[in-house]
Amino acid sequence: MNKEDMIRTYSQDLSGGLENVPVLIENSVPKEAFSNFQYVLESVQGPGCDIDPSAVTLPGCSCRVQSCLPDSCPCLRFGQTYDSKGRLNQQQEDDGFSRPVFECNALCACSESCQNRVVQKWVEVRLGVFSTKDRGLGVEALERLPCGRFVCEYAGEIIGSHEARRRQLSQTPLDMNYIIALQEHSGGDRVTQTFVDPVTIGNVGRFINHSCKPNLVMVPIRVHSLLPRLALFANRDIERYEELTFDYAGGQNSNTDTRKWDKAPTGTLTGADVDKIPLRKVCHCGASNCTGFLPLDMSVLH
Length: 302
Description:
302 residues, mainly beta, five-stranded mixed β-sheet
């Protein structure tokens, strides 16, 4: 046993056997930390969401091949998403926008080993949930992850904007916010919003902390449904026992805006709502470019 292995010991599987690889929990983490948490492999339909994310609504390709090719597969009409090792190969168009990403789905004729099937296979890397010194629970890589490697989805309840607003206003100053607000710009003034809340129903992504200099990037991926799946990929090589982080403020793609709370309010709130505005929380990421505070976005409260 090397020195690193002696730092933390893991045993219980947070996913309860649902994932391909056990999501281990550090032995020192109290069981009460997960008492009100239900593990799911992918996002589920919540209040205010009119679409069942588990329903297969996108058409499939007719490629009767081992692995689809961009020139002939409609799922790859925006380019090859992954390389031969399943690593993200997302590129930007000449206008600076990121290409939409569609994986082959359950209706596609290609094989299950098709190169364009990655996020739908869920977690395939070794991850550990542990207690941090000053940021609650966190997630670390229990194996080396190369740049572009899919790590996990940020899964939870997909809810409507009114429900997101209600939940944020019901939080106390001591509560942590887990709601991700994804805004996708599809030309002109057209903006599609998706809200994901993993506070009671979610996966390992719920426990990944923020960093102002993260080692993960969040990319919306569509598989079976028009509802995007918020996939987290390594944006550089990640060493074993390194904590995994992503930027809650998002902004990594010029046509998407993925965030928790990352800007001051720009609208007018009622007197009752003003009293419920959470205070800025100190950021403890330790990055050289740390802003000093966790991202704050109150736009959903307008």
